[in-house]
Design goal:
single chain; about 150 residues; mainly alpha; about 65% helix; globular
Length: about 150
Amino acid sequence: ARGIVNAPLIPSKVEGDKLWVGRAWVKKEEVVPLAKAVAYYSTILQSDSKSAAALDYRGFAKQLLGDTEGAMQDWDRAIKVDPTHANSFASRALHWLNAGKFDAALQDATAASKLQPANANFLVIRSSIRIRRREWDSALVDANEALR
């Protein structure tokens, strides 16, 4: 609403006209409903077709709405327009993890971690992938680094 592309978040509390989203209360009218999120990010992309953040968030919204193919297209495009956008690699890694494609997941999680080595979330994703691959020592290294 303020011209800033924010990550899609699911409200965890509702009080009157306010929603607890992430770590803050926001007014309901400032929140785009999930059903309208794809259109919202598409509007942003009309004015900035190379916004990797808008593509990443639209992909996330599409995934939540069950459009996995559309989500993957958005994440692929986000990475193509900005190969330094770590969040798009992480989003795609989570998709691959949930789909059981651990090699692709590890590749994308590693790319995200290399782009933003201090981001603990990317290390946690990579640790989760390594756990699913039964790579216990590597998973522990990533988990410990995330905690550090």
